[in-house]
Structures are given as structure tokens and as C-alpha cells.
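Final paragraph of the annual report: two paired records, presented back to back.
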Amino acid sequence: MSKTRPHVPRRTSHREHVLHQITNRIRQSLELPEILSTAAREIRRFLGVDRVKIYRFAPDGSGEVIAEAIHNNQLPSLLHLHFPASDIPQSSRDLFVRARQRVITDVSAQHQMAHRLDHPDTGESLINHDIRHTPADPCHVQYLNTMGVQASLVVPVLHQRQLWGLLVAHHSKPRHFSERELQVVQLSVDQLSIAIAQANLLAQTRAQVLYEATLNQVSQLLHSPLSQPEIRQQVLEAMVAALKAVGGRLYIAAEPSGEVAQLYVTGEQPNSPNLEQDPVWQELLGRRTDGLSALTSTHTPSPEAIAQFASSLDTSLESEKSETLRFHTFDSLQADPRWQPIVALLEPTSIRAIALIPLQFQHQFVGYLGIFRSGYDQEILWAGQHQEDARNIMPRASFAAWREIKLNQAPEWTPQDIRLANSVAIHLYLAVTQRRVEAMMRYQASHDALTSLPNRLLFNDQLSLALASAQQDDEMLGVAFLDLDRFKLINDSLGHAVGDELLQEVARRLRACLRPCDAIARWGGDEFTLVLPHLHSAEDISHIAQRILDRLTSSFYLGEQEIYITASLGIALFPYDGADVETLLKNADLAMYQAKQQGKNNYQIYHEGMAVQTLNHLALESDLRKALSRKELLVHYQPQIDLMTGAIVGVEALLRWQHPLLGFVSPAQFIPLAEESGIICTIGEWVLRTACQQQRDWQAAGLPPMRMAVNLSAQQFQQSSLATSILQTLEETGIEPQYLELEITESAAMRDVQFTTSTLSRLVDLGVQIAMDDFGTGYSSLSVIKHFPLHTLKIDQSFVRDAPHNSSDVAIANTVVALGRGLGLKVLAEGVETAEQVEFLRSIQCDFAQGYYFSRPLPPEAIAPLLISKQVTG
């Protein structure tokens, strides 16, 4: 007997029609509300019930009917009604998720059936599983009765394994739901889950499109040829529009180079004219310091750091959310007592949400972006009278809509809002910082790092412009070279840190005493150049020059140290002394050297004779370089006398230059020249070797050995090979170390105390004597001097010359002798020229002396008779 195919009921075509309509709607439309409305309508028509509604849960557990289909007004509409979270307990929601539970309720029989179907994705057919019949909850039955419902079907709608909402079918009469109907409804709900996923994906895509479009717009603006104010204003307006805000604020902090802070605003603002200066606003922003200085930048990252940050930009945007972002609502601010001043600023405005995004990377703050959103009014239709009844114990008496109106609600900041704001802030930070780095590089290329004055490159440009203006207006213009006197002594004795501080203070004083039209630059070292335009006569330049010199002669207080300096100033005038930059600078430099030669602390205006003097100076330097090989350098010796006995106790070796044309050249003229030209070390080594050989020759001639004092220049003393060189000289000449006394100046000793102590200790270990020359003219600390391994202190002749008539010199000489005695050192006075000075030195118990009173420096053959007698007549 053959089997016959069973008759396919009409309901099957209805099922196919329902699924076809829902699937087509999903394909034809990407809008979820339209798909849900179609699904509710088709399922109601398929089931033939009075009402089908789709109910969506909110994050707080409440829900809203968002789609509905009703047949002939058999039941009242519930569309857009909200139901409190207590209407569907959490336990019921969990049950829907775990078991994909459907609940069918027969109100008239007060009977409830829980029914589960497996999902077709599992590969199993749709067959009945876990069907449980239980009495319906009386509260729920009464709940449905109040709604006019006699039969209901509840099907959970899931999205990503979470309960998204419910599809509910209501009928005003008792009704049975067949197996086939349940299958069609479940398949339809599964299609809705697909539509929900599709809608979420669409929302994400739209958000991404907005995100990328806004970033592209910002990037194009930041790289546009518009001015910086125009760019920043338009970027701010674009952000306000993208985030649907009512106002915005972009603050760019002051730059280290001196550019002032800048503020850009659009739309509605907090009610404060000086918001950035408000300490509470700064704290809200995360800048926990006082005053506008809190919102300034003191350091700019290196170009390498910015490039590294920019290269990781994509990764940082996707994976990192800056902890510095500040997103607030009016309610959250109002709940914190700290922010009440900010609440007071917002209350008169419509602003009810603010975003504060610092433009910051690695604690480098360059400003912030502020976005302000207005509040909105919200109307919620609640199902039934709004009251706190014990839900699921006492049902609602009525489902008439109760209207709740919430005014001026604060909009929340979504993750998409935060991502967009953070990304734009990073682009702004990069743009601002890149511009600052470029500006700083330009600034550093044209300015001196120590004094912040223009350097020679910028000065040349400034001078060129000033010259062009002077030529056009037929005016006189001055160019000046200024050099500090004795600056090397200060640098050597007090250290480079003090020297740098002094240069900074000199730069400040020079700025203060110049006219607004004048320009100043640091040329290098302790040299400064000036442009002095709009001069009417030579008297104008004289007044300016004298004002500069007077201003610099006032004492400088660097820490606890009081320092006095002077300066030498050389001036060249346009159009008399040159018509171009190079000539004017050269002639001003010549005039400055002339001021040095005239005794320093004065100014000289260039004249043609200075060029001749400079040529002579260069020729003298050239001759000095050849003097050693031509045997023009000589060593003379001046005896050192014991003041108590009058006996010669030693001699000092002193360098002399016998020039073939000029005769004897003064040491005061050629020693500084040797130091400037760098040949002083070579000459110093020759003097040391010559003096030791002379000591050996005198001993060979039968003279008794005596102390030979030899000066070490500052450059010679700084040589690391000094001790080795001296030991080699002693060994070659056969002189015993105790008869060699090395003299170093106080300023050379104080250049590097640690190095000096170490070097002197090595020399003392060799057995030589150490004397500190020119004592009292430097800036040494007594706490340092006591640690130097010395044998003799030499009082500088400047303190001997006016003694005993000058009370200050008397006091200094007394102090040095007392200090030497206290430290166990011998004291020798230099430059003794009168019997009165000798008596004074004896009265204060000075040990030794030397000077013209006893003998001028003599060549070896002339001093030999004195050494034989070991006595001089004074």
C-alpha cells in the first residue's frame, strides 16, 4: 500500500508569507523601526490575534513598547508606553535568556505553559522540548485581565546572547497556539535578531563614517593655508557641529618662546569672562596649580618624541582612552561640593553637559578643547498610574497612560563621542606641538640659548634692515661691540655657572638701558653687539655708550657673591666708518680693542688710525710665535729677600722679550698676547726648563742651592700631563725638587677646585714647593684655600703699593699675613719699592719680599754677584 502525501494546510502558506514579508523587509530596509513594525503586523495577521507588540528593554531594566499591530481596536494601544523594571523581574529575564523560554498563558483557565524550541542553528529540527504546564500566577492573570487579554504568548528576542526585548501576542478571547504557529513565530523572531544585529552594525558604520569625516575635515583644516586663528576657529566649530553641541572653547597655552595664550570660542559659554584663570575650572580640567600660569607650557617635546607619538597614532586611537579626558553632566557636577562654583557658572545657561579634553601627551600640556551641550526635555508615557505599588504582588488597576515630563535633562556622553573628541584632541595636540617645535627650532637658530638675545645670524639681518632704513632716510647709525673686562678671571675663579649667571644679568641690564629702537645680540663668549639707529649727532652715541658703561659698573649680586665688572665698548658710525654690515662690524671690533688698550672701562669711536694699530698687534703676535725659535726670549731673575735678615732666600724667574726692532717688549703687552694665541704653554715649558738649567749651572759654579720660583700660566696648569712634564724636567736638569717653587695664580686655582687640589697634591708628592700668586685679587673662599697643599702666599703688589697709607690695603695685608701664619704658610709681598713699605711689612711680620727696592729683575750674569753674597742692600 503506497503512502499518500499528507494535505498541506493553508497555514503553511501563511507561514511562508510571514517569513517572506519579514525577510524582504530586512533586505529592503536598513531601518530597524520599519522592520519591527512589519514583523508585528505580519505576525499578528498570521496568528489572527488582536494585538502583537514588540517590547524593548532599557539598560535600567525598564522597557518600552516600540512596535505594535492591533486588529480593529479590539484592545487598547500600548505603543510608546514605558513599563517599570519591576513589571518583569530579573529572574524572569534570566529564564528567557537561559532557556529561550516562551510562555503561553490561558487567562480564563488560569493556566500557563512554558515552551522551549531549539534554535535551528544547532542543526536540530524544531521539535518540542521541556514543555511544562503550571498554574498561572494570580497576579499575572489579573494583570492580563486588566489589559483585556484572555490569551497571551511571550517570546524572548535575543541579541548577542543577551535579552534584547520581547515579542508579545495578546488576544481578547481564549486561544490555543499550535506547534506550527510557535515555529513560525520563533523563526520570525530569529529574523528580528538578525535585523537587530544589522541595525547595530549600521549604527556603528554611521558613527565610523561621521568619525572619519570629522577627522578628515579637521586634518584638512590643520594643513590648510589659512592663518592659525582661522584654522583653530574652524576646527572648533566643526567639533561643535559633529558632537551636536551648543558651544565650544579652544584654549592654546602660552608658548615658552613668549607667545601669549590664545582663546577661541563659539556658541554658548559658561557665565565667566576669565574662565581659564578660575582655579576650580583648572582643577576640573586636571591642572592642579594656581593662576593662569597653570595653563602654560614650559617644555616642548623633541621632534623625535613627536614623530614617535605620531607614528603610533592609529594604535593609540583604537586601543587607548586617555585618563585625562573629563566628561561631565550638570547632575554629576551638582552632586559634588567641589564643583559648586562651576555649577553656578552653568546654571544661567542652557549648558547641561561639558567635555574638557586636555591637549596633552606625556605631561606636556599645550591647551584644552571644551565642548558644551544643552539640556533637553524628555516626555515618558508610563503604563498606568505612577506609584510605588509592590509590583507582581498588586497589579495595576489601569493601564491608562501617565505622562512624566523631565525638563532640561543632561545628555550623556557616548563612547563614540569620547572617541571622536579624544582623536580630534590628539590631532590638535600634534598640530600645535609641531608648530611650536618648528617655531622653537627657528628661535634657537636665531637666538642665544643662555641670554635669549639674538645671535650673530639674526643680528646681521637686523643690521642689514637698519642700514637699509638709514640709507633711505639719510640718517646716522651706530654699530657697537661690547666686551666685558676681566670676565675670564670671574669665570676661572668663580666657575662657569656664576659666569653664565653674570652674562644673563648683563643682558638684562643692556636691554634696560637701550632705546626701544635699538637692537642687541650676544656675539659670542662675553661679547655683545648693538645696533643704534636714528642718531642725530656724535653726542647721541656718546650718551648711549656712557649710559651702558655706567649701568654695568654697578655691583652684581650673584647668590651671596657681590661682583664688580666693567666693559670696553667700540663704536663704528654709518656712513662715516663703513656702508655695509661687514665693514661696520670690523671697525667696531677694532674700536673695542682700542678701548681695551686704553685701560678698559671706556668707549672708543672708530678712526682710521685704529686699523694701523690692529695691524701692528697682528704683526706682534706673528713675531711672538717666532721669538722662541729665534732665541729672542730671555729669562731674568729677581731676588726674594728675608725681611728679618735681609738675606736672599730665592729668586723668581721672569720672562722677557728682546724684539730685534722694538727692543724690550713689556710683559704686560706680550703675555696676554701669548695667552690669546695659545702659545703660552710652549713658552711656559721653555721658561721652566731654562730656569732649572740655570739653577744647575749656578750650582756647578759653586753657588749654594736656593729656591727657584717659576710661574705657571692658567692654561699650563690645566694640562693633565703637568706633573709628568715637571718630573721629566727635574730629572733632565738634575735639580732637587725642594729647590723648585711653582707659582699659580689664585684665579687659576679656583677655576676647578677639585682638579686644583688633585694636581697640587701630585706636585707636592714630587717634592716641589707651591706658592699662590696674586693672593687677594681673586674670589677664593677661605674654606677652600685651607685644603690646598700650599707653602707660600704672595701678597699682590696692588695691596703693597699704597701701604701703609691706605687703610684698606693695610687691613688686607694684615689679614693675609695672619691667614698665612694660621695655616702654617710663609708670606711674601710683591712690588716693594720703598723703605716705608719694607718697615710696614716688617711691622706686620711678613716673611719675605721682592721688588725694585731690593733689585729689579736681572739677567743671569748680572744677578750672580748678588747670589754669591746672598745679601742685597736696601
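The closing record of the year follows.
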Amino acid sequence: MQLKVSTGMRGFDETIDSLRLGDNVVWQVDDIESYQGIITPFVNKALEDNRKVVYVRFGQHKKLVEDNERIIVYEVDAKKGFESFATEIHRLIEKESYKTFYIFDSLTELLTNWYSDLMIGNFFKVCCPYLYELDTVAYFAINRNVHTYSTIASIRETTQVLLDLYEVEGQRYIHPLKVWQRYSPTMFFPHLIEGDHVKSITASSEATSLFANVKLVEERMDYWDVVFTKAKDALNESKEKQENIKQLLMSLLIGEKSRMYDLCNQYFTLEDILRIASREVGTGFIGGKSVGMLLARKILRSEKEGKFHQYMEAHDSFYIGSDIFYTFIVQNGWWKLRVKQKTKEGYYQYAKELKEKILTGKFPTNIKEQFVQVLEYFGQSPIIIRSSSLLEDNFGNAFAGKYDSVFCVNQGTPEERYEQLENAIRTVYASTMHPDALEYRMNRGLFEKDEQMAILIQRVSGDHYADNFFPHIAGVGNSSNLYVWDKNVDMDAGMIRLVFGLGTRAVDRTVDDYAKIVTLDQPTRKPLMHMDDQKKFSQHGVDVLSIKENRLTSVKLDEAISNVWDVERNLFASIDTETSFRLKELGYQNMPTPYILDFKNLLKHSAFPRVIKEMLAEISRVYDYPVDVEFTANFRSKDDFQINVVQCRPLQTKGLGKSVEIPVVSPDEPCFIQTNGNFMGGNIRLPIDYVIYVDMDHYLSLNEQDKYSVARIIGKLTRELKEKNIFLVGPGRWGTSTPSLGVPVHFAEIQHVDAICEISSQAKGFMPELSYGSHFFQDIVESDIFYAALFEGEENVRFEPDYILKQANMLDNWISNAGTWKQTIHICAPNQMELLSDIVSQKLLCK
């Protein structure tokens, strides 16, 4: 039998047959003074019985427990948010261990920081079972007629003891509503408390008189909804009041003060914020991806001359609030596992288990109903469920490609379509436990930060073409061109990676298929490749949503473009006359017309390149930083089109994604490489484990067969060292098919390196066209390998091979006949070498 515990009120102990170890006791009160009145006897009795007493302080109300050296006090900051608060409480309970007695501040105080009844219910649901498990006794309070029925129901369901406390005409009454595993004939009557004496109010006349003076519990909206409903009234108030309310609502929807917050504050009005809130499912933040998309669109619509209005496709997105992510974890009973996973020791250990559980979890009924309403709104239009975590798409942390996005083709019965939606949401939630995402957060010191997952639900841009759905074009635009391949390219004009169909091929690497790289200063500029390569290194497959198969799939270009009915196809592609004649010669009939996807007319004769260039420039101007924008576009004619900005973030590439301070190196201070411009890969601070250097003079003196042998040795070295940070430096074009122009490695042989540098020298008469713009260069871009071109002898260029040549050549560690090649290939492990670059200042240094 469980040990009985006193409330400190002897008569009331007799009424409810005392408390038990493990009891969570929740008091519904009218004011904090009433709660304090019943805490005092409980604490005094606990101290008298030599119990360990802990007071958990987080509220703004007056202290409930007088200072006493025998009472342990924890002050916990609720402003940090649900996860930090709940985790800190969990850990203090773990520390204080078994049979501790607790006093908690009023749970209603959490509304001051969280503005969400839902999350108060969630907190109690994760805290209460752990207290029960450790045989504690804990007192909580909630204010009457403040919380929703569902919050009270959640607390009632979870707690062991629920009591109403009334103060009527100077007298105190306690009305037990739930006393777990105890019963007496008078237990659930109200009771008048007079010191140690308790009188049960059993007579109908007395009970009627009492309850006539008691305010009945009323149904309330979630406090979140109350705040946003009241905010609508402020639209008719003074500008000052509107601004104050806007700041509050932004802190609830967008997050804490940051550079992105400041930009939103500059552009969003109170009306904008209320419009966003009206399309939120649940409560909490809408996440970085949603914020970035909304901000970019508002910047473009706010442009003073209104020159983008006619070109902007409207959006009708929904946002699943970040609180739903926590609710999903709490309601499925995984919070304890989540807390274990958030520790340094359990970070990787428990991730797989948590991911597997997330993929099979259930959503609460009230949330499911809201999902149904969203689905009913979209009908059978294809939608995409996109991750929108708190840290995503922000300055310094892009999380690009780390979390999942899932297309819902949205075909079938309502039940089938709903199942697709739920599975997609679970998939996005589970992607928070992907190894790449875990590693990304760990490497940036973010593993302990709240990384709540909100979700952006967008209507897919495009139209039906036969059995498929896709936009005419899609792509990624950078306001600063990191893919410069000759000195005449204006970096500040920006560039785009353009594809036909869904934009997945613009952001994800597709084997043997290529997006179109367009320099926006001169859109028709040709990359450095032979005309014969034009078809080979273009897009051959098109990603589409198959209405018939109800899935994302790929079709051949000729099939996709032959079904485009609403615009001239030659806007995007030219007929492949050579292949067409060849097919006729071979006797093929009824074949789709073969095309080469060159976008020639689009880039030369339409307004599209100008408009997208100006859009990128305008967003970048406001951000005061280069930006990376995902877009789609649909055409009625070459100058009648609409662009849909589906994502926008500060431009991130390899590395930290924030400005890197390049140290000043004096002329007499040694370094390996120093240059201005002519690199691709963004801001990096990359520690170098190994440098592999191919000497220009010795390489050029080799016969052709030996040059191929050098390429094979390089491949062997990079495979052996693939877990290390490798910097590959050599003459001319890496990957050329002509050994006299550079080292003829295959891309597969160097795909594991972290950075490559190509060197040309006018003084030595070796000035081949470097890899910028070639198909090999595209492989480098796709694989996130940092790239630099070094023009030896030019102003502001330092190249000092002796910096590494003075270190021992380690080639014979991996190559049996190394002596033959040591003059040509030098590999060393330099001590504390770093490669640093900054895209804004366009400086690069390796020393």
C-alpha cells in the first residue's frame, strides 16, 4: 500500500483519505492568494516530516514560499520557450530524484510567455508522469475561467488529484473533482475548511447557496486566439498602439529579435501579420522558410514603382505552427526520448529510434480536423509540404537540403488524399533526425537550441499537360554570381540555374543531366563548351507530378514539351534537326519531335531575364546581402508571364554562410595563395588536412601517357583520403579531355576533394581556358566543391609553391613507385593550414 501524505490540513486529509506518493495535485483557483493559503500548511507539514521541499519559480506573481534554507529554489526562465523550459524542469526533477515534494508557480503564468493553452497542456502532460514515476508529491495551480476546456481536460486526464478552491464571503471551500484510486461517500462534495476542521456540504440548500456565489467554468478560446482576435480591433487604433501589437504578434509568429526579424518589422504591417495568422494551423512560429518566402514577396510588392506587380503569381499558402511539432511528440508519449536525444551523449544514439517513431505517430483529433480543412481548401490541386524550421533560411544557417519537402499530387478519395498529407507531414518531422541535419546542427553549435519544425504548405505552381502537372520553368536565382567563368562576367548582376518543369532538377543533382546556367548581365552568353556538347550538356529529363500515377516522376523532355499547349514551345527549346533527320532516315514514324532545351528565345527575346534580374537585385538591396531565391514561372507569351517566388534565403554555399574576416598578410609574410575574385564556393574557413599539388613545369614536360598516369595517381590519392579535407592545386583545366590543357582526371576521381584550384601563367605561356562554365565545372558546382582560378603573375595574386614544397613529400605513403612522380606530384599535410574566402569582399587566402 502506498504511503499516505498529509496536505497539512488534518480534516481534509480525512476527507480525501490523504495524498499518496506520486500524486500531482492541481488546484483551480480564483487568485494567487488562495493558492498560497493552501501551500503554507502543506510545506510546513512536509518540513516537519523532514521531507525534501523544492520550489520551482517561473511566474511574475509574488513568491509563494517564504525564504527558508531548508527549501531548494529553482528559478526557470519560461521566456526561452516550451522545449528549453520543459527540458530544464525535466532535468531538475531528475537531479532531485525520488520522494521530493514540489511547489510550482501557477501554470497560468506561462501564458505570459507562450500565449498558448495548448502548450501548457503539453507541459503538464510531460512533467506530471515523470513526477509520478519518482514518487514525488507536486502542487500546481491554474486560474479558473482562463483556460480552454481542452487544456483543463488534458490536465484532468493526466493528474492524480484535481481540486477546486473557492473563497466565498471570507470562507474557504475545497471541492474535489478527481481523486485517483480513492473513494468515500462524501469525497466529491464541496468542503468548508476551518483550520483542521472540515465540514462536508451535503445538504442541497447549503450546496445551492454556495454554488450560487461561484462563477461557473466557461468555455474559452485558446489564449493564442484571444490575443489575435483582440489584435484585429487595433486596426482602428492609433499607429502607436498598432505598432506595439504588431511587435507582440511578430514575436509569436516570427521569433526572437534577429536580422530577419528586423527586416520583417520594416516591411510587414499589422494587417500583414494578421493575414499570416489567419492561415496558420495550430499555434507557434511559422518557421524560417515561410518567413523568407513572405518577406521576399512583400519586398517585391513594396517596390516604389510597382514594376513587379504584373509579373507576380499570387500565393495562398498555409503554415503549420511549430507548437504542433511538440504537441505531436508529447501526445504520442515520446517526450522523454526527445529529452534523452537532446543531450550530447544521446544526440546520435537516440535519433534513429525517434525518427522511426515519428514516422508512425498519430495526430490529435482537433489538429486532424484542421488538416482536413486545409485539404478541402486546396481540393485536388497538387501541393508541396515543405520544412520550415525555426533556424532554417536565416542569416548564417541555411539548412539547405537538410530537411525534407514532400510533393502531394493530391489525387484519389478524400481519405486517400488525407493519408498522403499526414504521411508527408510526418516525413518532414522525421527529417529533423536525418544524419545530415544532426551533423549540420552539431557542427554549428546548434544541437542544444530549440529547432522546432514548422511546415509550409504551398500550392504547386503549374498546369495540367496531358497526364502530368508542372510549371513551364523553374530554377534557383542568386543575386551574386558565384559561377563566373570569364573576367567580363558581372558578378553583381546575378545568375540563375534554369530548368524546364519542376524545380527539383535545379536544386538536386541529377546524373548526366544539366540545368542551364545563365549569367544575368548577358543572358545569352555561352559557357565554355564546344557546340557539339550543347545537347549533351543540357537537360534531357523533366520532373513532373504524374496525375495518373499520383507521384513525383520524370519523363523525357520530348514527351513533356510536346504536350505543352498554352504557349509556343520554341520559347524554351529548339528543334533538334539533326536527330529529327536521323529518325526519318531510320524509318521511325509518329515519334515526338526531338528538342534541345536551350531557352534561346526565352533568354534573347522575352522580358523574363530582365525581370528576374531586377527582382533578385531588389531583394538583395533590402537584405543588404546576396540572396538565393527559388522560383517558378508560367507563360502565356514571351512577355506575358508570372513568377512565383517560392523560397528566399541569404545566399549560402559551402561553409559557415556568414562573413569571414580575411587577415592582412604583409608582402614579406609567407603564404601559399592569395587572390581577389575568381573563386566559387561562398564564405569558407576550411582547415586543410592535405594539399595535393601538381607542378606546372614538370607536368608540361611529361609525355601524354604520363599525364594520364598523373590523373590516375590523383584519383587513387583522393579515394584513400576521402575522409580528410583535401585541397587540390594544379595547372590548367582539371578534368579536361586534352592533357596538354590540364590534368585529365575523371570527375569521379576527385569528387571527394573539398577545394580545387586551377593555375594558369602568362609568363610561362600556359593560359588555357579554365574550367568555369564547362560541364566539368558544373559537376564541381553540383558537388559543393570550392573552386578557385589563379592567374599567376597578375596584380593582387600571390602564388608561392615553396610554402608547401619545403614540407616532406608523402607520396610514397600511398604510391609504390613514388620516386618517378615526386617532382610532378607533391602531397603534404601542412600544419594548421586554412583556406579562407569571403564573397562580399571577394578575397581569398590560403596559408
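The mean pLDDT is 88. This concludes the annual technical report; the extension proposal builds directly on these records.
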